Fold each of these.
Amino acid sequence: MKKHTLKYFIILILTFVVIITQSCDDTLTSTDVDNLVMPDSNVSYGKHVAPVFEVKCVPCHNSQRSEAGLDLSSWVNATRDPTIIFPGSDSTSILVYSIERIPPYAPMPPNEWLKRNHINGIRTWIREGAQNN
């Protein structure tokens, strides 16, 4: 009887460990980002823009693989070139032309469209000064 009790207790503990470990996973998924709603104003880099960049852009635009010389893996890297992201002016930021898929700039991401909500949020963030907030 005691052997079975110990066995079930160990199984119960292991189950809790698995559940707790899985609930602590902070990895963003495409579904997480697809469900992210951008506000109409006061767009935060950390809460709104960075998650979209991390899932949709950083796989190709990072410090190891900076396609077209662009690294969007951090605020510092993303805002380094004012032609890519021109704080205060979304209409002169090349990033906007790429995510809006306006020629002659390469459409980004190449195999999918960003959600209109995300594009509008990124544009608002840039218009609001592209702050690290």
Amino acid sequence: MSRTQRAMVLTPVLAAASVSFGLGTAGCSDADSATEPVSVQLDFAAVAGALPLDCDTALSLGATPRSATLQDLRFYVSEVALVTRDGQQVPVALDVDGVWQSDTVALLDFEAGCESSGTPETRSKVLGTVPAGDYTGIAFDLAVPFEENHLDSTTAPSPLNVTAMYWSWQAGFKFLRLDLGLEGGSAFNFHLGSVGCVSDSAVRPPGESCARPNHPRVVLDGFELGRSIVTLDIAALLGEVPLGDAVNPMMGSCHGADEQSAICTPAFSRLGLDFATGEASSDVGSAFTLSAR
């Protein structure tokens, strides 16, 4: 993407991933071009510090570094928006493709079939349209909206039909699933989702919101369409987390349970969440950052 005449409006170009600041298209008034939707591609990546993630890369992670390998990494984003120079969040209308995106939720997938629960297909982009504008930030929820979070995954539309990303009708979906194999044959799982969802049984959806929704709102400044990549750094996410417990695996992972506070709290803070309440915390969060193409 080139930036020319920054004060002018955003207009479409041939490549969906790129946009430029310039004059309106021929035959259109400035007012018309300012409101015409622009196709955008929002790129995502996953790393561990300086290392790109794949199934075979040897990683060193955690508060006391342990050797690890990636087994699964997928997450949902919703309420995607671009942020204008004056701070207004403008919703991105998601393209519906019947696989990775509905009109409300997009699935990002970085695990490349590392384990039997995964798939060889990956996904590192969100496609949609926004009104023309001068955007300097990006925002999204790392979550599935409550209204859709407790659907039956066997009948829900894509991308909410991925059973590996599902807990139960009561608990809903795993908003983020990170599975690691650790040296010695143990494992570490970080599964983010809503907690304290009350219903008649685990196979019934709750009637009201969950006690701890755990919906991080990620807002990143300095974003440039066509140049910036939203990057999840699992080394930063787990930087203060003790990984794995050979005696009690439940206490060596994080699924949001109260007894996992020592494991979950530092990771939640890196996402800008308060583990005890499931609400946004005073921590800014450092797991998601922007990198340049």
Amino acid sequence: MMEFVEIGKIHSEFKTLNNMPIQPTGEKSLKGEIVINEEYAEGLKDLEEFSHLIVIYFFHEVKEHKLIVKPFMDDAKRGVFSTRAPVRPNPIGLSVVEIEKIKGNIIYIKNIDVLDQTPVLDIKPLVPDFDFPKGEIKVGWLENRSKGVKEKESDHRFVQKKEGN
């Protein structure tokens, strides 16, 4: 059995999934905070030397998974593993955010696209030489669609329906 520990929470202005950006590069992505639990705060040492973080988090509002989805950037049905859809067998997400400053156990960030109160599983510094592959990068079905991501917001596709609706 695998077990993960929540190391903190993301705080953002996004209280619901409606109209939030679908990627952190979105024009409406705003500032937020990652509050690291006190028992892990010592692990933030030296992080202020980096400009960006990879944040790994738990999609805590996802209640089901689907193997075939209609992703935000397309109207065709796609395999979930070829998308960034949150309805995954293991509802784990990641975002790259910019660090503004760190004070105590709080990381002040820019370009957050994550729901408020989302549990954080891990953070890692972004290092281009480690994280960006060399050579040609293929982006599959997103080839002619990814340019519009900055204006794209979430819609009803992955919002849980309330009982009786």
Amino acid sequence: MESTDGIRIGIGGWTYVPWRNNFYPAGLVQRRELEFASRHVTAIEINGTYYGTQKPATYAKWRDETPEGFLFSAKAPKRIMASRILAKTGPQIDDFIGGIAELGRKLGPLVWQFEQGKKIDADDFAAFLALLPKSADGRALRHVLDVRDRTFVDADFLTLAQRHGMATVFTDSDDYPSFADVTADFVYARLMRTQSGIATGYPAKELKAWAERAQLWAAGGEPDDLPRIAAPASALATGRDVFLYFISAAKERNPAAAMALLHELKLAPAETFRP
């Protein structure tokens, strides 16, 4: 699929048994699920890397199974973010990025997720951000901060993220800090309210609203109907890339929600799946 004005719409992962009933065609072998999914959404967030890194050859295989223009986001390993002293995780960071860089031009943002219950020291966190490399194998890297400690998410956190050019996650879930402040030249949103009883996961009216927000973000503006921590900055003269994923909640509906939003945005596949 081609992205429109830098907008990419995706899902979390591609291996989920219920999708074999309502997303993947009957009889599709599991080894071709990524090939199929990547021709129906424009990005996928890899969640498996949170629990363990893959071999470079695996990343290369995923790269080669997906069409041109497709991007993977990836969650960094939990063992890094759960470290007692973040400032000492440099070798682990380098190991993770050294492997996943095998995705090449299909490597999108890397998500650094700090779970609820993880108390963060401000100085240690600042030292950690300084460890995150800006490039790998000659390609620029984009970093996303998903901090779920509500006491840490404040104006100082936003300033630090902005200083490093890193995005912060917007989520529409009440379970996590929800704020739409833009701190980088791209936006990263995780939508977590799909409903089992709706074929497209979200009502049509809400999908239309998300399409409008994505287009506004992509044009350099910021929606005025989402929660914020600080006042919005002036609109950018140039546009932004936007990554919007349907994650968790009624997971069986997430592919349908992503495809419905792509349709609302008038995005069409650049390649079709060939059985």
